[in-house]
Amino acid sequence: MSGRPKPVILVSGLPRSGTSMIMQMLEAGGVEILCDGERAADDDNPKGYYELEAVKGTKDDPSWLDGARGKAVKLISQLLYDLPEGTPCKVIFLRREMGEILASQRKMLERRGGGGAEGDGDSDVEDAEMSRIFETHLTEVLSWAKQRSGLELLEVWHAEVLRDSARVAAEIERFLGLVLDVSAMGATVDGGLHRNRAAGVTAEDYMDADEEEAVAKRLRDLGYL
Fold it and tell me: Which stretch, 43-52, 92-101, 126-135, has highest mean pLDDT?
């Protein structure tokens, strides 16, 4: 990276896909983390959220990027679109079975006082629709990211981190081109936090305006926008 600006290290994906887990790994490995601690640890993320409030306003004010070179920042997938063109960044993009993501989101919504109750038939219908919309969003954002100037992408599956954290840590080290404490990274992974397991659902079409708003509403309800 000599002679070139250090890229921003972005940890991205859908909410509840394992982004905080990767931030913990990066911190343990020796990467400087950029977060503000405004969102405190709770039952949904007992080890902390590792969030930076400023990223929510990236579209109108991307100035936080000036102090983020070479540091790791968590940025949900919807906000990747707001990055200024040509921003040098390396994105670790978390993937997880959609049913697990939605189960985790629903528990989080219930704790926040929103969403249907367990076993509610309407909730099942909503989850099926959100599965379709989120899968479409992932197809769209990953296609966009792979063509975006200045952006490099590594997809990491949540289940693989739990299954073989040492291998994933080494893969992240190679992707970032840094010398990291891979052993410490692997040791941070807590398989006991894998509490929501379910089957996934896929989709084929890109999102329309109503679907985009459905994603935005879910993210707002979860506190990510």
Answer: 92-101
